[in-house]
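Field notebook, page 403. I keep forgetting to write these up properly, so this time I am using the form the group agreed on. The chain and the ligand, flavin-adenine dinucleotide, are recorded exactly as supplied. Prediction of the bound pose follows.
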Amino acid sequence: MSTLDKNHIDFEDTQVAFAYRSNSELRKAFYMFKMLSFPTLVNLGKRLLIPAIELGIPLQGLVKITVFNQFCGGETVEDSNQVIDRIKGYGVKAILDYSVEGNESEVEFDRATDKLLKTIRMAETQLAIPFSVFKVTALCRHELLEKKSRNVSLSYEEEQEWSRVKQRVLRICEAGAKNEFPIMIDAEESWIQGGIDELCEEMMARFNKEKSLIYNTVQMYRHDRLEYLKDLYARARKEGYYLGIKVVRGAYMEKERERAEEMGYPSPIQVDKKASDRDYDNAIRFIIDNIHYINLVAGTHNEASSQLLVDLMKERDIAPNDHRIYFSQLYGMSDNLSFNLAHAGYNVVKYLPFGPIKEVLPYLIRRAEENTSVKGQTGRELGLIERELKRRKKEKPLLKEMP
Ligand SMILES: Cc1cc2nc3c(=O)[nH]c(=O)nc-3n(C[C@H](O)[C@H](O)[C@H](O)COP(=O)(O)OP(=O)(O)OC[C@H]3O[C@@H](n4cnc5c(N)ncnc54)[C@H](O)[C@@H]3O)c2cc1C
């Protein structure tokens, strides 16, 4: 048997992938993904759903039994705990992701900070929750972040506002670091990422002196990020702190390209998917080469990149459960990767978004769009679920169906 065969994880094993789901849940997931395979329907939902709910049309029930139940843990931390308990039985951990977006006022930013602090305090007590995560836009005005990212000088009031943002980020990172509980910061649009990187680097320099507790995110669909990662590493080594890095391909490609075209600047996005794949895999290689100083979260639904990481870990004799490396997928997607990797002993953590239905709608719309636009993703989910349903039927044809 070649090394590759020995390392190979069977991502097609649907029995392992869906063991945590009942027949009726799987059937519901099947119909939900089928629905998402119609771009016109997703587009219509995207345009009408938020205004309709704002007008008081009672569509929340429908959203709840379809996309919300598929992609979210629940409306509250308590609801989400049921999902966490369930997947933990199969070796898969969770990151509670308070997915409320579009905050604009100081009151909302402070409320989001308190909510995050509460989630961190709760998460720290549970082994099944190895990280907390947040988006800087939950704590800061978009325009302010954009100004900060463009390096334009801020007015006195804006400087005051920015120092309040820093205070919020500091409180969150400090709360985690105090108890050695890692905190990840999501990456967002390129025109606000400069400000996010600045905050994140400051927190890493402050709290990662002895180990990686604060994580930044790099989006490899940007053609400048491999260089950024290498430069950040060089600076961190020089200044004597560790890095925590979540590597993703990036979620805002269409928006990035449209804005660049509209405003007439060169797109920050790679020329094609192959280039994003190449840089993603090179970022993983770079981190594994420097694993003594960088902790890694590989946030991807891509099978080849996940297999590559498995191969590199074997090649370097890194144990599957080495605490420095996590595979990560979003709840409701790519269970074939998450559960098969966990079954083989690797560290796996699912992003588990939660929040009131109305407020997590932007997140849900992004997931729906992603499952429509990512070539083959919906087809893949559908195919795997269908195969598992058939397998179960064949296995127990005479028994009464599981609930
Ligand atoms: C745990 C986790 C955390 C995440 N956190 C973040 C985050 O903080 N910030 C963020 O932006 N995203 C985040 N994402 C989303 C992620 O960036 C991707 O959108 C999503 O995971 C799909 O990419 P993939 O690697 O899973 O798989 P694939 O299906 O192999 O790749 C699809 C991705 O490739 C890129 N791509 C597709 N077509 C092209 C093209 N023509 N040219 C160039 N590139 C192309 C796009 O980024 C697209 O999303 C996260 C995802 C996960 C699983």
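OBSERVATIONS:
- Strands lie at 92-98, 132-134, 183-185, 214-219, 243-248, 294-299, 325-330, 348-354.
- The first strand starts at residue 92 and ends at 98.
FOLLOW-UP: compare against the apo run.
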